[in-house]
Amino acid sequence: MVHLLGKLPSEECQKLLHWVVDGVCGREPPRIADYGNTWTLVEWMELLDSLSSLFRLAVGKKTPDKEVRPSSVLASLADVGSGYGEAVLTVLRARREEIRQALVERTNNVSSSTLQDFDWQIKLALSSDKISFLHTPLLNLCLDVKENGALKPLSVEMNREELQTLISSLEAANKVVLQLK
User: Fold this and answer.
1) Residue 138, φ and ψ in degrees, nearest 5
2) Which of 53, 87, 109, 134 is deepest in the core (most CB within 10 A)?
């Protein structure tokens, strides 16, 4: 729906694009009242959503600044015209770091809990009340989690399979974090 940008005079395009980036970054987004003569309400919502998605995806792909040119951004703006595409690229280059910070902050706000400290112990269960010969290693993991300003201790006991699942999940999460940096 970015083709709707073509209804706007090119000299006003950068102002709108900067305003859209303000909305992506958590500040006041553009208002339909300022552009009601240019687009209908449905067109306005589609344009705003398309431009916001374009900025978020272009920055979220973690491409170096030199690669933010023609390829993906201009391809998605092919319907509009090169003047509008260059305006989008100019705004994207100028406010790239600001958009990235807003995306990282939004991701960090998914959970209010943070890990403060941890400790672990390995135990060997030799038997239980039902089985006389067990020899099962168990991991006791103690986590200190800060949630809404209060420190909350958590204790988890895991067998080998559960520990392996936890390690796999943490490695996957680490990959995602490294991609966001």
Assistant:
1) -130, 140
2) 87
Residue 131 is encoded by which pair of tokens?
Answer: 């089985």
pLDDT digits (tens, 9 = 90+) for 88-112: 888 888 999 999 999 888 877 777 7
Quick one: which of 142, 10, 146, 25 has its CA closest to 94?
25
DSSP assigned state of 36: T
**Element spanning 14, H or E:** helix 10-24
Query: Average pLDDT, stretch 25-34?
Result: 89
State the virtual CA torsion across 175, 177, 180, 181 in degrees, nearest 10. Answer: -110
167 φ/ψ sector (left φ>0, alpha ψ -120 to 50, else beta): alpha
Strand order of the β-sheet with 113-125 is 113-125, 136-147, 150-158
What is the rounded CA–CA span in Å between residue 92 and residue 58? 8
pLDDT of residue 164: 94
β-strand partners of 151: 146
Identify whether the C-beta of residue 113 lies closer than 8 Å to the C-beta of residue 145: yes
Q: How many Å is the maximal CA-CA distance in the chain? A: 82
Q: Give the mean pLDDT of 121-125.
A: 88
- Give the closest residue to 6 by CA, choosing from 57, 79, 71, 75: 79
